[in-house]
Write a structure and sequence with these properties.
The complex is a heterodimer of chains A (about 80) and B (about 140). Chain A is α+β, with helices and mostly antiparallel strands and about 80 residues long. Chain A is about 15% helix and about 65% strand. Chain B has a domain of about 50 residues. The chains are: A alpha+beta (about 80), B alpha+beta (about 140).
């Protein structure tokens, strides 16, 4: 195993990401809109210490095309 | 001629004055008799007649309707054609029919006998959806 592998392994296994925040999903013409804010904290679980705080504003739109539904047949 | 006319008028007045009240009395008596005696009997007879007709003819009507429905079902076949288009709009979902119609076809030939257009325009309001994350922990694990 290389040094990089060890490093990545230690980093990954020691750290965890905590997410807080709120998102609002609403319907807009032709799709969905997602708005809100996420707060992410990278925490060293071994030391019990927060390493990094990230503020993530979210303002995204998802385009959804029309869905065509055939009417059910009478059998 | 005037004497004859006066004669007839006089006789008529006299007859009217004598016979009129008697006719009125007789008419009132007949009316009371019909109302009190024959009326209820006619009503009872009519009720019995209707009951008899219903009880005797209901089976006939039922059989007729049943056979008619069976024949219609064997003769015709309903078919719904068309599409429903769902479009996401501001604050809701719009459902619109495209060429939606009910075709009544002959079972044997498949020919369309009658067609009924079915307009569809439905609006479903959808409120905002809130998602809250509270201390959601993402833990990573190395694949060994």
């Amino acid at each position: 195993m290389s040094i990089v592998d060890d490093l990545v392994e230690n980093l990954v296994e020691r750290n965890a990401i905590k997410l807080n925040g709120a998102l609002t999903i609403s319907l807009i013409d032709g799709g969905l809109a997602v708005k809100g804010r996420l707060y992410s904290t990278l925490r060293d679980q071994k030391k019990g210490k927060d390493l990094l705080n990230v503020d993530i504003p979210v303002d995204a739109q998802v385009r959804v095309g029309d869905v065509v539904i055939p009417v059910p047949q009478i059998k | 001629m005037s004497d004859v006319k006066a004669f007839i008028d006089t006789v008529g007045k006299d007859v009217t004055s004598v016979a009129g009240p008697r006719i009125d009395t007789a008419a009132a008596g007949i009316s009371d008799k019909v109302l009190n005696t024959y009326g209820p009997r006619v009503s009872a007879f009519a009720n019995e007649l209707v009951k008899d007709i219903i009880s005797e003819q209901s089976v006939t009507v039922r059989d007729f309707v049943t056979s008619l429905i069976q024949e219609l079902c064997q003769r015709y076949r309903p078919e719904i054609v068309g599409d429903v288009r769902a479009h996401i709009a501001q604050g809701g979902l719009d459902l619109t029919g495209q060429g939606v119609r009910l075709d009544l076809k002959r079972q044997d030939t498949g020919a369309v006998v009658a067609s009924l257009d079915i307009p569809i325009a439905i609006r479903i309001n959808v409120g905002d959806l809130g998602v809250t994350l509270k201390d959601t922990t993402i833990a990573l694990d190395v694949v060994r």
